[in-house]
Design a protein that fits this description.
The chain is mainly beta. About 10% of the residues lie in helices and about 45% in strands. It has a single domain, classed as Jelly Rolls (Sandwich). The protein is built from 1 helix and 8 strands.
Amino acid sequence: MIKTFRGILADGAQERIRLSTKQGKVGYRIIKFQIISNTPGSGNHESVVKVFKILQTSITGTVDFSDGNLLAASYQSDQDNPQYTGYLGPIIFDREIFNQDIYVTNFDADSAVVMNYYIELETITLTDNAAAVSTLRDIRLNPQVGA
């Protein structure tokens, strides 16, 4: 089964997508991640939209693939000078399976553009052991999961 989520994020904003269940027997994997400005072609912006396993204490444009909590990232640039317009993404770590809430962030390095996002998640039935391992890993990475 595929679950879809979409939303809009202001510059510097973070949104929680609620996925956790009481027993944690439903796992998820990102299969599609897309972004677009809410005003395409209308000015300068350089936006980085990222998806994380844990709540972020600061929203930045830095992308660090060694961060074990990063699930996906995408970059979009729209400049008055067409020479500098670009899109990179999405980059999805599609082997990452999670069973807790995820967080989407938006950072614009050039202005304060609002970004739309669209995420498709594949649902996966987890065994008791896989659910326990995933939940314990998420609790270890994010102590707020159990709160």
